[in-house]
What we know:
This protein is mainly α. It has one domain. Helix content is 72%, strand content 0%. α1 runs antiparallel to α2 and α1 runs parallel beside α10. The termini are far apart. The relative contact order is 0.13. The C terminus is likely disordered.
Amino acid sequence: MLSRVAESLYWMSRYIERAECIARLIAANHQILIDLDLKSSESVRENWGPLITSLNIQGNFRKKGIPPTVENITEYLIFDQENPSSLCSCLKAGRENARAVREQISTEMWEHINRTYLWLWSKGARQFFQRDLYAFLDQIKESSILFDGLSNNTMLHEEGWDFFRVGKFLERADFATRVLDDKFHLVGKTNPLIQWGGVLRSCSAKQAYQQKHLAEVTPILVAKFLILSDTFPRSFLYSIQQIDHNLRIISGVRMGTFSNEAEKISGRALAHLRFSIIEDYWNQGLHKTSDEFQQILNDLHESISETYFCQKNPVKIPIEESNRPPQHQAAQQQ
């Protein structure tokens, strides 16, 4: 397979997954405002800054010189064309990558992403957003899920499919680390049950979590579920398992060995996660843990690019835009 084709499939799936994750995050945090009492809700509404901090886009938002209110950040995360991680930007980049590999994806996949893109940029979508935010976000999430289903059922499960899967689960792992970052405290100490319930909703994990732990919502159990669950498809461990599996299918190397740096990183991360307990991560703090996981994902992305991709994709978001600064830089900013 040509490297440019593999890279476009990789980034196409990452952008579609990112759009879905952003939609989940916005919906979950709007729900927090409803769940809080009126006084706390108004306080959070006037400072939604931790949300853009968790996505590492605070610098871009600050340049606009507008306050981090719910309305401003929601607009920025959905429609702002200058934000490379907005829903509109992600769908645009995903569509451009899909256009570049029309011969590798099915007609149904192309028609669906093209139709979703055209709708999102239409006046009708803007009116729908203003009329019913939750229904609008549900439409985005359902569109992403439908695209994933179409790819699973209409795309050849060959090498291109494996790159598609690697991109999807790398983006999913990235999102799991961001919602767990201890800098992401929208409600502070006001009501931790609501806060951690919102973290679960951000990953569509609430019902799955309750099947494991009934109605008990405690921070350490939520962290354990989203980091170390090997059966929940949005946990960090599950995502790393899928990445490692598909990388080895691409190269043909057997389990327990590696043929390139990407396989070495994914294999080492997977082994570490499998032989860890949540206290190993909890005791050092979720922010430090999240930074360590982000570094693994950064190194993994760089290694995949160096191993398989020969040229830069013109519609790819630069790596420095999509990753949070190192911990010491974050401390200096504070």
